[in-house]
Amino acid sequence: MDKEERKIINQGQEDEMEIYGYNLSRWKLAIVSLGVICTGGFLLLLLYWMPEWRVKATCVRAAIKDCEVVLLRTTDEFKTWFCAKIRFLSLETHPFSSPKSMSDKLSIGRAVCLIENPTEENRQEISKYSQTESQQIRYFTHHSIKYFWNDNIHNFSFLKGLDEGVSCTSIYEKHSAGLTKGMHAYRKLLYGINEIAVKVPSVFKLLIKEVLNPFYIFQLFSVILWCTDEYYYYALAIVVMSIVSIVTSLYSIRKQYVMLHDMVATHSTVRVSVCRVNEEMEEIFSTDLVPGDVVVIPLNGIIMPCDAVLINGTCIVNESMLTGESVPVTKTNLPNPSVDVRGKGDELYNPETHKRHTLFCGTTVIQTRFYTGEFVKAIVVRTGFSTSKGQLVRSILYPKPTDFKLYRDAYLFLLCLVAVAGIGFIYTIINSILNEVEVGIIIIESLDIITITVPPALPAAMTAGIVYAQRRLKKIGIFCISPQRINICGQLNLVCFDKTGTLTEDGLDLWGIQRVENTRFLLPEENVCNEMLVKSQFVACMATCHSLTKIEGVLSGDPLDLKMFEAIGWILEEATEEETALHNRIMPTVVRPPKQLLPESTPAGNQEMAIYEIGIVRQFPFSSALQRMSVVARVLGDKKMDAYMKGAPEVIASLCKPETVPVDFQKVLEDFTKQGFRVIALAHRKLESKLTWHKVQNISRDAIENNMDFMGLIIMQNKLKQETPAVLEDLHKANIRTVMVTGDNMLTAVSVARDCGMILPQDKVIIAEALPPKDGKVAKINWHYADSLTQCSHPSAIDSEDIPVKLVHDSLEDLQMTRYHFAMNGKSFSVILEHFQDLVPKLMLHGTVFARMAPDQKTQLIEALQNVDYFVGMCGDGANDCGALKRAHGGISLSELEASVASPFTSKTPSISCVPNLIREGRAALITSFCVFKFMALYSIIQYFSVTLLYSILSNLGDFQFLFIDLAIILVVVFTMSLNPAWKELVPQRPPSGLISGALLFSVLSQIIISIGFQSLGFFWVKQQPWYEVWHPESDACNTTRSLFWNSSHVDNETELDEHNIKNYENTTVFFISSFQYLIVAIAFSKGKPFRQPCYKNYFFVFSVIFLYAFILFIMLYPVASVDQVLEIVCVPYQWRITMLIIVLVNAFVSITVENFFLDMVLGKVVFNRDKQGEYRFSTTQPPQESVDRWGKCCLSWALGCRKKTPKAKYMYLAQELLVDPEWPPKPQTTTEAKALVRENGSCQIITIT
């Protein structure tokens, strides 16, 4: 086997990884051990931090089949390395592994899932995994999942349950009987214990892991160095800071582990009843469950300990733990295709596709419904970390790294500081050798310069802004479980909104109904609750076709179903347990009208008048994939049963007899949807009398949902939330694009988009209708222009040039951007993704309405938008937006439940006003991070230069001088400058995304030059003073020009020799000037508008700075002997103190002028100018008044070495291209076809239909 082989595991999935095999090498291990001893353990640390180096340094490459260690690397943009040790699972010691009983067991299937072939294949199946006679299976564990070696595919793959490769038929035929004890024991050996084990690490383990962080190791190195140089106070201060930081970090990490452990531990020790093959019941702990076990769901409910598929009975489940939606969901048994001839026998079971029949781990079963002598049963399909809850917990335990330019640039910036430190390191060594300094002092001082350049308080300072932002968000009801994402939210330039419950009110109001009689629509009717309609099939459908249930006597369920049922005023009754036991075929749910609605009958009709009620025999729950739901019901006394169906009008009409659908169906539907109404269609048919109750329980929904009679439409009004238009207007003003992603009808969505201002009245809407390949024809897209307010006489006359242009709120956006919007449904979106890849980016640039989108399609849309470099926010109600909320850069759920862990942000108030608030806070946090980083960079450079200057005269800053600068000035300033609240409104410009940008670099470099210049001025100027001499304990420059305010007691018997040469005139001058410089740059960098409140509103910062200024000014102008003694400051003439004050004032003036005037007003508008939303202004003609600006920009760009670049973001580049593309946007009534021969390349050609 090729030793250099590389294989892929989890191919095509989110956690796809490359895998390499290695074997331990003794000689390499010996060399590494020697290296560890020689480097004093540093090499060991380096190998601990770098798994790739660790494996390559101690192992040699080997074939994956025979390796002892595997090296894994993710295939995403992060390329993260992991390593894992190969372990062996021995089967020979197991009592159930003899060949005789092998036939009782179930091995692992071809796709590493449970096989369906019994007996003979088991031995072969085992041989796939065990290479030796001793029945040993090789495996490794990564991120709580076991990967077993599979001989069939010559690779490792993880063990799957019944969720893949198992047909619905076989679930009933091969798995519904349960497992024997032997099979159960064997599976348990492979699958392990059914638990989502979130072990809370001991404090000691967490402490070791935290302390071995590179940052703390660097601090430890610094502290040891300072102690050798007798900087005890400063070292102690850093140790105290580090301990506080470590304790805080340990507390928060352990608290998160405990919370997660408590969240998943709710089902760990539940006792459950399982059915065995011989129909006997066994009670076991839920931790012993394995895929294939048949579990009995108790009547009083249970918190599900695994993922299981219902095969008998009905359950009402609260899935809020997974989805954040507290509305109870009805789960029915999986359709059995083998019972019904028309069923699809080969359909594979999938937990997502069949989620209405699947009970997910962690969800709460509130109620069960069963029939006489029959238990509610479910087959376990997944256990442990493979369950939906397990996958959710894994995503929390092992999150993907946050890819954000700021953090990448921060590391780059630190490397630059290290390079600067390197220069200082070399300079110090050379200077000390030339001055014949002792070797020990040379080593200490040269290493000390490195500890000065890389500030130890940097990580704490960087997180301060985020912590404060998180606290402010909590105050306005936004909870955050991923604080690092707050910064990323500051970059959002596109927000996707779900419609129902997000942009519009959660509940729908019944506007009216429009029934069909004799294939014609009647006039709309407002009142459904009347005697005329009480016994009509239309009302019967409204009464029965829903998923409502009574929980503790209160009717609950989907809000739409509730409104519909309340409108007819009927009563719903559920059979009690006693009634179910008494009658063999009792209907589980019965609905009946109130007595006052029933028409008065003749005495002869007494029996009929007494009772009119409908029993719901079977329910096929609403499926977002099918866009419909149906029920089988029977009116009491009728021989035949009725099938009722409701759902999306287009879908319902397609399942009805064509002759029952009115001719003007499309027109009527369009009229309602254009007005923004939500329309639901109803259908009905009488079932054959041969269909008995038992047959109905096993019939597939396809057999019921066809050949129906179209009955009419229910028109629901979905009102816009009061705040929606204003919030969207704020976002548009800030040049943040808004996109609607909904499961509703296309035209309704377009209408709502127009109503809320997402699409302006004069904008064109182009509907992209994509059709998949069919009958040998290639895939194609038909382009239709939706009717706008300005009607055109001829449809083909519509041209993008004729559309009136009006900039959105006078923004500087590209003119084309406001002219047209694309709208499409989920099916079209899927076809375009598959067959027209080259059109996807263009459609993403202008796509505004995406209707009838399934949950996974919403996630794909977010990915497609991110692929063209948008920073995407997603705002949804948490029900079916979980995937999209997790995938977006900033997902915010409007669910009321804080427990929803699907979204990084959760708003307590179900209002989209949280979106601008989140972006504002994100921008403020981002700008704060930049300010702090710039300040910390300046702090280290100022201090570095101070020390370098003093090293030139073999001096240094004193221990208490370091202490005063680092603790009294830096920490106080850093933690108070981060307190600026966000600006009160969103502004059009966005903050830069990274530190490596022209404006930021210019800002930092200019301040460095200014600070170095004024420090150098003070340092060299003091030497030119007439009173200057090389300082010695007897020196007293104050005697010559004694100040009136000078305290004579200051110069007392100075007989101690100053070993480190701290006390001198240069040191005192540099200390005072640099102390003021820290405060000057803090003020210069603490900018307010447009992203933060002005710094004068940050009272803590203002107070801190004023106090520090006053204190330093006081000790400089009016020295206090005790303070001077502690800070090791020497006496200088009063005239020089005034000179230092003038230097400081000029420094302050220059710094603040350069930062706030020159940088912001001149360079900001000329060189570093960026149009709103980060887009360039594209226009064919340049107004004359802009020529001066252009000329100035060219000159400055040339002077600063800036050259015009193409936009970095793909969407900006694309916008430029589309401006000169004559074929875009597509003309009305045209078709785009995929090229048949090169379809995989996504190429397409535009054909105009004549």
From TrEMBL:
Residues 13-150 form the P5B-type ATPase N-terminal domain. PROSITE patterns: ATPASE_E1_E2. One of its GO terms (biological process) is intracellular calcium ion homeostasis. It comes from the Eukaryota. InterPro entries: ATPase_P-typ_cation-transptr_N (IPR004014), ATPase_P-typ_cyto_dom_N (IPR023299), ATPase_P-typ_P_site (IPR018303), ATPase_P-typ_TM_dom_sf (IPR023298), ATPase_P-typ_transduc_dom_A_sf (IPR008250), ATPase_P-type_domA (IPR059000), HAD-like_sf (IPR036412), HAD_sf (IPR023214). Pfam families: Cation_ATPase, Cation_ATPase_N, E1-E2_ATPase, P5-ATPase. Residues 272-396 form the P-type ATPase A domain. GO terms for cellular component: early endosome membrane; late endosome membrane; recycling endosome membrane. The chain crosses the membrane at residues 27-49, 232-253, 410-430, 450-469, 930-954, 960-983, 995-1022, 1068-1086, 1098-1118, 1138-1163. One of its GO terms (molecular function) is ABC-type putrescine transporter activity. Residues 176-226 form the Cation-transporting P-type ATPase N-terminal domain. Keywords: ATP-binding, Endosome, Magnesium, Membrane, Metal-binding, Nucleotide-binding, Phosphoprotein, Translocase, Transmembrane, Transmembrane helix. It is a multi-pass membrane protein. Belongs to the cation transport ATPase (P-type) (TC 3.A.3) family. Type V subfamily. ATP-driven pump involved in endocytosis-dependent polyamine transport. Uses ATP as an energy source to transfer polyamine precursor putrescine from the endosomal compartment to the cytosol. This is Polyamine-transporting ATPase 13A3. The gene is ATP13A3.
